[in-house]
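Figure S4 source data
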Amino acid sequence: MTSFEMLRPTEVSVVSGVGLREVHHAIDRGVLPDDLVAQGEGRRISASGCPLIAFYYGSAKRLTAEERLSAIREVSRRLRAEPAEESFEQPWSRPAQGWIVREGFLQIDFEPFVADAARRWDRYRRAVSRVSSAPSVLSGTPVIAGTRIPVHDVAASVTAGHPPERIRAAYPGLDDEGIALAALYASANPRQGRPKASPILAGARLISEERITRKVG
């Protein structure tokens, strides 16, 4: 399981609900304080930054960039001054007032973004708990726990637009929740290397083997 403290950009995208491109943009633009970002062998972002990134993009139509950055700096200062008892079960736990920033006549409440990130984090944890990987099973390929069903094959079927009933028929024992969590896990942990073609599901049939000869002239 990935450490709660530092997450990969793909995980941050899933937990914050923000696109991967925006996550990288937030790093490049310095939206988050330096202590919430690590850029060694691979970019990492503190889980505390997930609701902050969500706020930055989610409030863009109502607040100026400077107002958003100022609010993020204030909340980040509080995170450093009064560290919460963070855990996998209850991340970002602190009194609700700790997420409210007042600047003159302006009052900004981060709580909705924190609550949404917490909900997404909980669902991601459930997805991770449904996946296992062992050298003795498909050479370590991530599979649905207790099966030999490759997680990324299920996700590829979802991406290809196959309906749940067709995916269930191809992978007996997999329910709709398992399908959705497999897709979520794959989104946060994309397959390395060149993507494989979408798997052919059970019940599919070849319509034609006719080859078209290309004319050259």
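Figure S5 source data
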Amino acid sequence: MDFNWTPEQEAYRMEVRKWLEANQPPPLAQIDEENSGDDAAWARLKAWHKKLYDAGWAGLTWPKEYGGRGATFIEQVIFQQELGRLGLPMGCNVLGVIMNGPALMQWGTEEQKKRYLQPILAGDEIWCEGMSEPGAGSDLASIQCRAELKGDYFVVNGQKVWTTIAHRSHFCQLFVRTDPDAPKHKGMSALIVDMKSPGVTVRPLKQITGDSEFNEIFFEDVKVPKENLLGPLNQGWQVLVATLMHERFGIGETIGGTEQTLHALVELARRTRINGAPAIEEDDIRQQLAQFAIEVAAKKYNGLRSLSRRLKGLMPGSEASISKLVSTDLGQRMVKFTTRLLGEYAMLESHTPFAPRGDWMKRILQSESMTIAGGTSMVQRNMIGERILGLPKG
């Protein structure tokens, strides 16, 4: 495989870089794409999403018939790398673009595609995923939120938890139990639920970072039209697995997240002084930075396997679990390494006196949640062992 960019791809990168540098609003560098606790920040994030959409940068790989550019995954990766280089977010509807939209394209009816895809891409309608429950976190096959088909409606009762950005969402891709007597991997269905429906209650959860992008959702006799069934009845497990693969590809693909963190650590080591000398001159620090660089490179090249699969027109496979597992584990170790460089200063909140640039404390705390999002690290290891290595189930 030739890992070099072609002249055409380099020209495209320069086009992307030029547009982003000319159009980025300065405050966006400080906005986390999932930090929806502040209304003003959310409004700025929506404005940025709209700007990306109007310029044709949202949903690059989406087919043109659904409002995308029909770009290649190579072009998407280059765009993501340039976003990361400038510290810019993808927009306000990340889950909608990387998960719900692709799931609708794969499983939705023509009517559903025409109704929902364009508003998702434009950021006019925000989407969330109704998966985890209090008794079914990593084991999603054990969900108990139930939907009974009564005439022209499903009637939904139950609860979901850890639902990202539900309090901002217009719709939820909800996974429910429609046949309680079937084995747990069967008898499940996916529904499109209007979050303004009577009986839907959203309660934000305060996190250790102080943010509240995660939520509980309660459903009490919620009526969902029968035509809002996404995919075949009682075969929602297939829809769920496909949706998660899109998410893991989105989380773990080689789009520069850990590379940007590595660059930030190197710059931090150059600026920080330990015992009167730059931290980067200490042998153990240089060795750890070198180890991080090796792992970042390994993750990047392994991630190209997922990219190659997409370039062949295939859906994301189990190899996405490798990228997701490595990305979250490596990212967590990297941000925690700042405590070696900064000592107690790494634990200062960004708005306090003497706090270092980079808001490392929040990044350290957030890194814990990423080992759970999209399936816990333990689940990813099981999938890698069983589906890639062919090991027996434990």
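The domain at 253-388 is CATH 1.20.140.10 (Butyryl-CoA Dehydrogenase, subunit A; domain 3). Residues 31-37, 251-256 have pLDDT under 50 and may be disordered.
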